[in-house]
Write a structure and sequence with these properties.
It is a single chain. The chain is mostly helical. Helix content is 52%, strand content 6%. α1 (6-13) runs parallel beside α3 (40-47) and α2 runs parallel beside α4.
Length: 71
Amino acid sequence: DREETLLLMAARAGHVDVARVLVDLGVDIDHLSSTSWKTPLLEAVLAGHVSTLTGLLHQLRHHTYTYGTFV
C-alpha cells in the first residue's frame, strides 16, 4: 500500500520529533506516496521545514539502511 504514512504527514507539517520517533520505529523513509508522489524528505524540503529535513537526514545517517528499510 503506497498511501500517505504518518512520517510523510509529519515531514510535511514540520513535526521533527514525531518524524524522529517514527524513523526509530522503522517507518520507511523512502516511502513514495501514491497520492502526492513524494517522499518524506521531499515533503520536508518543499514545505521549507529545514529542521525536519535535517532531523530525517541525521536519522538516516545514524541507522543501518538496507533496501528501503532500517535494520
